[in-house]
Fold each of these.
Amino acid sequence: MVFVFLLLRLSDHVYEQRLQTAADNFIAAASKLPRVSGCLPPCGFQSSGAEYNCITCQYDSCEFPLDCPVETINVTEGSRSQIRCNETFNISEDVEVIWRFAEEIKTQQVDQFKEVTVGDDRLYSIPSTRLHHQGTYQCELYSAERSIVRLYFYLSVTPRVKVGRSQLQELFDRSLLPRGRFVPEPASAPSSALTLLLLICLTASLLLFLLSLG
Ligand SMILES: *[C@@H]1O[C@H](CO)[C@@H](O)[C@H](O)[C@H]1NC(C)=O
Ligand SMILES: *[C@@H]1O[C@H](CO)[C@@H](O)[C@H](O)[C@H]1NC(C)=O
Ligand SMILES: *[C@@H]1O[C@H](CO)[C@@H](O)[C@H](O)[C@H]1NC(C)=O
């Protein structure tokens, strides 16, 4: 009886020791994993910079928000727009990209956006930008079905008319004399001379016609 009891205690002891060894090995391995230094602000779920938390037995991410600040892009109507979903931290190659658009407004409110494309395209390209393209573009990156980061770009489209008008304004300003007087319009002179020439020509042919009637 005593012998059996001793045997049980012994196996208990062996089991405990094995468990302790396994735990020690695990902690040693976990502590060799990359530390928080890999975190790149200001946004995104960054698992590469995650630290193993020995108390919760989980990887803590860098604890940045998913939403990045809005970046403004200025384009002129009719020109090409290119928006790149370029997160700054390192993520795996295997990502899915969802592009969304909120027409006209500058916003980060998720419910304002409509889905445009789903796929692996990191570049959103508009060959000829129109006024209705103005608004906020959001790209959301997913890795293994998990949302990693959301980038925002506000595309501001300057109308062509406005550009033309500002060029006209420049021309007007340049035509002003230093003392604030206008330069005489040189274009009006040749046109009135041409009118006069035409008039003379017409009168002459009319005269000739009347003469020929005799
Ligand atoms: C875009 O235009 C706005 C106003 O015209 C200006 O304040 C801003 O600096 C411009 N942004 C870039 C990135 O050129
Ligand atoms: C990311 O893409 C945006 C829009 O295409 C561009 O304005 C910005 O310079 C890019 N940033 C980097 C770090 O490449
Ligand atoms: C990103 O990861 C790749 C491989 O996973 C590595 O070769 C590269 O150096 C990393 N870049 C940065 C900036 O950490």
Amino acid sequence: MPSPSRLLALVALLVSANAIIPPGHQGLPHQTPDNITHPTTDNSAIVQAANQVDQKQAAPADAPPNVDVPPTSVTAIDGTITNTTIADVSASNSTFRRELGRRRNIGRFGKRQSGFEKVFDGLPAGQHDASIEGTAYLTYTVVNNATYNVKACTDWCTTVKGCVFVNLYYEFNNQLLDFVFSEKSNLKCAAYGDVHAAAEKLNFGGQQSYDQVGNETVPLTYITQSSGWALQGYVTDTPDGYDLVFGPTGGANNAPGYMGFAFLDQYDVDACAQLCNGRGADPNGGGCAYFNIWRAVVDGVPTTYTCSMYYLVADESTAVNYGQGSLVVTLSRGYARKTVLPDGGFEGYTACDDFCFTTSYSNWIGVSPAPADFDATFFFFPPYAHSGHGSALLGSAFDDDSLAGTIKPAQPLKTDAGAAYVVQCFMSSAFSGPAEEASAKVDIMWNGERVGGVSGFSEYTFVEAPVVATGSDLLSFVGGSAPAWTFIDDCKVYKA
Ligand SMILES: *[C@@H]1O[C@H](CO)[C@@H](O)[C@H](O)[C@H]1NC(C)=O
Ligand SMILES: *[C@@H]1O[C@H](CO)[C@@H](O)[C@H](O)[C@H]1NC(C)=O
Ligand SMILES: *[C@@H]1O[C@H](CO)[C@@H](O)[C@H](O)[C@H]1NC(C)=O
Ligand SMILES: *[C@@H]1O[C@H](CO)[C@@H](O)[C@H](O)[C@H]1NC(C)=O
Ligand SMILES: *[C@@H]1O[C@H](CO)[C@@H](O)[C@H](O)[C@H]1NC(C)=O
């Protein structure tokens, strides 16, 4: 004779077990997930930060020529002004350490180009002039000053990664140029990653470079004949792992799925892609899937380069933020991250328009251990999905057995051999409630090896696993043990 408390527990168990209508009979989940509201672009934070950063620079009077171009840096992140590298930002905000993708030396601008054109002239030789103090300063060199050597300067620019503009000028009374550096030339050629105008001639020199001798007045540096030359017809390359969605236009995205923004010290699409790849996942939306890069021009002057990140792919239809106040949006481009997993959201299963399911369809295959069936199924039913109407289910759809099922894409994934990827999904083991789902478990398998997974009760949760590709890769998800079911949705396989 069981004790009264055990009897109660038994009754409770029977009641709860009886209450579960399995997914195959269109049962409703234990608890329907909250409606997700997708945040949209925080334009006011971007404008506010744009008014705080100072990214303008002239070629310094006290640095040697031909210093290596420093890597692109981040000058603000989510509204906080900073000065840090892309690698540091990405590493600090990853759920696991990702190796940064190799920088391609095609870089920000392709080699296709059609020569330089003059943007502005220098003042006549006798007059004091000023050099550019502008964004995206890269490095400088000195060219032979026997003549006003424009060609040597523009030729050199084509050898500097990212250079699209040079400012050529004489700098007088610079002790280092006159006596120390081996080139013995005062004709400076400063390289920039953006085109600047005469209005940005703001560096008049005025520095004390010569040593003090007795009580003689030390002559101060000054600048003459400062002209500007811009590279025509350069092409912005698409970052590895991305597709160009739109641009360049004068509109920045005002789109849902916004994850935050960074300012870059130059218009570097690769750097923005790396920030997107390294961005920590949004708990509701998942990993970064899209970025919008654009140049902020304030009062007619290039000021910063915005990299906005989104977990939903946007397009030109929402690129409608043209600026605010004195800030104008220019050179706006959108790039979507490519997933090598076709139909990772199971939206391709459309055999009905209300409720239906299957063990396989064109994009996915469900496998049950023989002789069982329906241990791995694909549903059309919005209440089961993380987004849209499709999702996959592991565990017997009719609660006939407690065997684990396997789902896998119909074709091996076409990847770049040797490259790092990340598998991202949302998984929910919540259908039959915390007690029944306590033993839920799913393994993410990559070429037969477990690379990640989930266990225990949870509503739709973001799950990711790092992998290395072989060129043709077998991905599968194995698990479920009815009534400890797991739903899977919104899977991506991105280059990391
Ligand atoms: C969620 O959104 C749908 C459609 O907008 C609405 O019908 C439903 O009432 C919302 N549910 C909750 C819990 O807010
Ligand atoms: C940013 O940091 C680097 C390295 O520490 C430094 O060389 C550079 O001058 C800094 N830039 C600004 C604008 O503070
Ligand atoms: C060239 O530069 C050197 C070093 O600054 C300077 O001494 C010399 O006067 C310059 N020559 C001309 C022609 O400007
Ligand atoms: C320094 O200046 C004073 C007057 O201003 C002058 O008499 C003196 O000769 C100067 N000394 C040197 C070393 O030039
Ligand atoms: C890290 O990522 C989260 C989620 O996207 C974001 O809220 C946070 O601001 C990020 N922090 C940094 C330093 O990037």
